[in-house]
Amino acid sequence: MARNSDRDRTKRASTKPRPPGRQHSCAFCQVGAEWVDFKDTALLRRFLSDRGKIRARRVTGNCARHQRDVAIAIKTAREVALMPYAQYTVSERGQGRGSRSGGVRHRDQSNTTTSTENAGQVEVLDLNDVDVDVHELEEVDA
Hints:
The chain has helices at residues 5-10, 27-31, 41-44, 57-60, 64-79, 134-141; strands at residues 112-116, 122-126. It has a domain at 110-141. It is elongated, with a radius of gyration of 30 Å. The chain starts with a helix and ends with a helix. A two-stranded antiparallel sheet has the order 1-2. By secondary structure, the chain is mostly helical.
């Protein structure tokens, strides 16, 4: 007896036809290019994503032969250091899971530290008011 026989009966192929997508045509076939130059980095950047990944053939619209040539040209250009392996992207998000102390750090508290004193009293020290000479610190350590 089949394990998922009930599931298979209820799952049917969609009867709706898929909408036709944009027809891609190979840019290299249109021009009549016989080979892809690995030194033409401006052209090869068209086939990279914003993170530096090689785009798929269905995205670029290249034929199979020229997509292989583009991939080899990009890999060769990376090896010769004409193109980067990955792009550095600046994230809009915060710094991961938050601060390690678990609390929310506000802007006005960024230059202050807290220290506990006797009997549970808390004193807030403002680091902007501290005047320390670097040479004095070196003499104390010596």
